[in-house]
Design brief:
The structure holds two protein chains of two kinds. Chain A contains nine helices and four strands, in the order ααααβααβββααα. In chain A, α1 (2-11) crosses α3 (39-49) and α6 (89-100) runs parallel beside α7. Chain A has helices at 2-11, 23-34, 39-49, 53-62, 82-86, 89-100, 142-157, 161-173, 179-186; strands at 74-79, 113-118, 130-132, 135-137. The longest helix of chain A has 16 residues, at 142-157. Chain A is α+β, with helices and mostly antiparallel strands. Chain A has a four-stranded mixed beta sheet with strand order 2-1-3-4, covered by helices on one side. Chain B is an alpha+beta fold. Chain B folds into three domains: 2-77, Roll (Ubiquitin-like (UB roll)); 82-120 and 179-221, no CATH class; 128-173, 2-Layer Sandwich (Alpha-Beta Plaits), CATH 3.30.70. Chain B has helices at 19-25, 79-95, 100-108, 128-136, 169-173; strands at 2-6, 9-13, 49-52, 59-62, 73-75, 143-145, 152-154. A five-stranded mixed beta sheet of chain B has the order 2-1-5-3-4, sandwiched between helices. Chain B is globular. Residues 219-224 of chain B have low confidence and may be disordered. The chains are: A alpha+beta, B alpha+beta. Chain A binds chain B through residues 39, 52-58, 61-63, and chain B through 134, 140-147, 154-157, 161, 163. The complex binds iron/sulfur cluster (3 copies) and FE2/S2 (inorganic) cluster (FES) (2 copies).
């Protein structure tokens, strides 16, 4: 783990003025590499670079863009800012949640997708907005967002349209108590 | 030296002195909740407000963070200041009535009721404990986490902090947890057992007429 700090230090040449490290930049770098901020890496960094762990944790919990939990490989975000909300982002989020089988803030079990809501992305004219892996998609409706994600799912999971539908249908029942009833169907 | 006017009085302080330090040096009381002479000023509680600038163009600033400037006009007890101060105390009462420090402030500044929805928090986010821990103990064992209404004091990863030196300073300095007030009932936010009186001269004039502490009008006072 000591190497982490060492390597990150190299990437930090411009900002790494001893005690003058830019914490946000550093955390961004960690997050880019691990997809989230792992506790042991932060602890190691604090020790190596003589930074305050408390300050790291304060900053990490302050900004929504930092995550202390592992996040999916593909990040799906819907905007829940005022403009997007007014133009129906809630429905879009619900639909995406259904298709992906996870609630906002969660990551799919295989670690492939995570869904979150963010506040205004600064592109309100295109409201409501969905961002998939950093790519912005404007003027979304529940149906259009679903189609977008299904396309993505098909590619990343190598499923056919029919298989995908089945998958979504199955996910929708997961966690529901009547899933017991469906268990029989699953076996085939 | 910096020369400025404090409640109409010509005063001089060293460069870099804050208005709060200057006022205290000249014996004028300004209440504070997030200030401690041994820690860096923070400007969070807003209780130390004073009015600066020409009448008519004046504004309220936090005296603990505002450095004295040449020719400045400062009023520490104008109607505006005193009323705002009372409002702030009222807000603190609504947040954290179990603090003796806040109850004492209420009595001292004659705040006798709370018009806001009553809560019972145990922290007013003044940040004194954090500054104590980092500036006096060099420990940085505690700090703020989260943002907005979820903001609160915690330790790294919300687990026992290895950095803590068990000095107890954070509790000693806390205006909310150290001195628990036994006074108020669950429903009644204000205790006022130690009620003093706000200067009645403020009812008629725009400034306190003197800076006696406690105000001698206390006896006859407003109470009747
Ligand atoms: S007791 Fe621990 S947390 Fe509190 S001020 Fe001392 S070192 Fe900091
Ligand atoms: S715990 Fe006490 S000292 Fe610390 S921020 Fe809250 S009220 Fe202030
Ligand atoms: S003693 Fe008189 S002049 Fe002084 S503050 Fe009290 S009421 Fe005002
Ligand atoms: S509210 Fe969604 S982009 Fe502004
Ligand atoms: S003492 Fe100045 S804002 Fe708290």
């Amino acid at each position: 783990m000591a190497k982490v700090a060492e390597e990150l230090k190299n990437g930090q040449k411009e900002t790494a003025g001893q005690n003058n490290v830019s914490l946000v930049a550093l955390l961004q770098e960690v997050q880019e590499r691990y997809n989230y901020l792992p506790e042991d890496v932060l602890r190691e960094l604090a020790r190596e670079k003589n930074l305050s762990l408390m300050e790291m944790y304060s900053v990490a919990t302050f900004y929504k863009s930092f995550s202390l939990q592992p996040r999916g490989k593909h990040k799906v975000a819907t905007c829940s800012g005022t403009a997007c909300h007014v133009r129906g982002s809630e429905k879009v989020t619900e639909e995406l949640s259904r298709v992906l089988g996870i609630k906002p803030g969660e990551t799919s079990q295989d670690g492939a997708y995570s869904l979150e809501t963010v506040n205004c992305l600064g592109a309100c004219a295109l409201a409501p907005l969905v961002v998939v892996d950093g790519e912005y998609h404007g003027n979304m409706t529940a149906a259009r967002a679903a189609a977008l994600i299904k396309e993505h799912l098909k590619k990343s999971r190598g499923l056919s349209a029919a298989e995908l539908e089945q998958d979504v249908e199955k996910k929708a029942w997961e966690g529901c108590s009547c899933a017991i009833l469906l268990a029989g169907n699953d076996k085939k | 030296m910096v020369n400025f006017k404090l409640n109409g009085l010509e005063v001089a302080v060293e460069k870099g002195t804050t208005l709060l330090e200057a006022a205290r040096f000249y014996g004028i009381e300004i209440p504070t909740l997030c200030y401690d002479a041994g820690l860096s000023p923070y400007g969070a509680c807003r209780l130390c407000l004073v009015e600066v600038g020409e009448p008519g163009k004046s504004r309220l600033v936090t005296s603990c963070t505002y450095p004295a400037r040449e020719g400045l006009q400062v009023r520490t007890h104008s109607q505006w200041v005193v009323n705002t101060r009372k409002l702030i105390i009222e807000l603190y009462l609504a947040t954290c009535p179990s603090s003796k420090t806040i109850q004492d402030l209420a009595s001292r500044y004659h705040v006798t009721g709370v018009r806001f929805r009553q809560k019972h928090e145990d922290c007013i986010l003044c940040g004194l404990c954090i500054r104590y821990c980092s500036e006096q103990m060099q420990a940085k064992a505690i700090g703020f986490i989260n943002r907005g209404e979820k903001r609160r004091i915690s330790t790294p990863f919300e687990r026992k902090a290895e950095e803590c030196r068990f000095c107890g300073g954070c509790m000693y300095i806390c205006p909310a947890c150290q001195a628990r007030c036994q006074g108020p009932e669950e429903k009644e936010a204000v205790c006022n057992a130690c009620l003093n009186l706000s200067p009645p001269c403020l009812d008629r004039f725009n400034d306190a007429m003197c800076y006696l502490d406690p105000c001698v009008a206390c006896e006859q006072g407003r109470k009747e």
